[in-house]
UniProtKB/TrEMBL annotation:
Keywords: NADP, Oxidoreductase. Substrate binds at H107. This is Oxidoreductase, aldo/keto reductase family. The lineage of its organism: Bacteria, Bacillati, Bacillota, Bacilli, Lactobacillales. Coiled coil: none annotated. The record marks K74 as: Lowers pKa of active site Tyr. Gene3D superfamilies: NADP-dependent oxidoreductase domain (3.20.20.100).
Length: 278
């Protein structure tokens, strides 16, 4: 496994296992066991995913030492603010069966994000969280948060895939000292991504799948990736990306696939915010 260094000095695995939409408790537990057995050390969950307890059981049953794992969870905006966020960190720890979290994120840029951030800063000082960051924040939002608080976010977890490459944001985050982390690197299969001729052609040169090409492309851009699957053979395939390197021409070809639009929703759209709250 390769690692990236965060701005607080902690190291994060370059690719991790995401658990979004794995809601069946038995499946979530087994998926975490299988992912860790496949070589994953970064496991990502969230309060909103409603699977922290199952993820925690999978972590415990994996047989891997706690210090060798990197576990992330997140607070949802309905529990934003100092008091609620602090309580939710404790709740996440209890559900996961852990003494500390490697990273905890503010999941959405809504509600009292400043109050939540103060809570995370305090919990970090207490040793209950090692690194703190955000998810789905735009460049101005993360800058605002960083400039008016003591601790700069280590991560911004955002949508990054061949259709939504976030070139401007990725460049800005890296220049600002914040590591970009990609959710939905495969765009959940939208626009028939796994049959895209450009990605298939690149993969054939290296004997790799389209999924492996995408994850390698993200890695070479300095982006942490989160891939999800409930099938162990796919987990093993998704983590097998460190034995080849895409050429400059490959990277340019993939860059040309950018549609420059979210494949899901615009977090700045007032209707999106209203729907989230509802």
């Amino acid at each position: 496994m390769e690692y990236f260094t965060l701005n607080d000095g902690n190291k994060i695995p370059a690719t991790g296992f995401g658990t979004f939409q794995i809601t069946d408790p038995e499946q979530a537990e087994q998926s975490v066991i299988d992912a860790i057995d496949s070589g994953y050390r970064l496991i990502d969950t969230a309060q909103y995913y409603k699977n922290e307890e199952a993820v925690g059981r999978g972590l415990k049953k994996s047989g891997v030492k706690r210090e060798d794992l990197f576990v992330t969870s997140k607070v949802w905006f309905t529990d934003s603010g100092y008091d609620k966020a602090k309580k939710m960190v404790e709740t996440s720890l209890k559900k996961l069966g852990l003494d500390y979290l490697d990273m905890y994120l503010i999941h959405q840029p809504y509600g009292d994000t400043f109050g939540s951030w103060r809570a995370l800063e305090e919990m970090q000082k207490e040793g209950k969280i090692k690194s703190i960051g955000v998810s789905n924040f735009y460049d101005d939002q993360i800058t605002n948060l960083a400039m008016f608080n003591d601790v700069k976010p280590v991560i911004d977890q955002i949508e990054i895939n061949p259709w939504e490459q976030q070139k401007t944001s990725v460049d800005y985050l890296k220049s600002f000292g914040v590591r970009p982390e990609a959710w939905a690197p495969f765009a959940e299969g939208k626009h028939d991504i796994f049959n895209n001729e450009t990605l298939k052609s690149i993969g054939e040169k290296y004997g790799k799948s389209v999924g492996q090409v995408i994850l390698r492309w993200e890695y070479q851009r300095g982006i942490v990736t989160l891939a999800k699957s409930t099938h162990k053979n796919r987990m093993e395939e998704n983590i097998d990306i460190f034995d080849f390197e895409l050429s400059d021409d490959d990277m340019k070809q993939i860059a040309n696939l950018d549609k420059g639009e979210s494949q899901f929703f615009n977090h700045r759209d007032p209707v999106t915010i209203q729907n989230f709250v509802k």
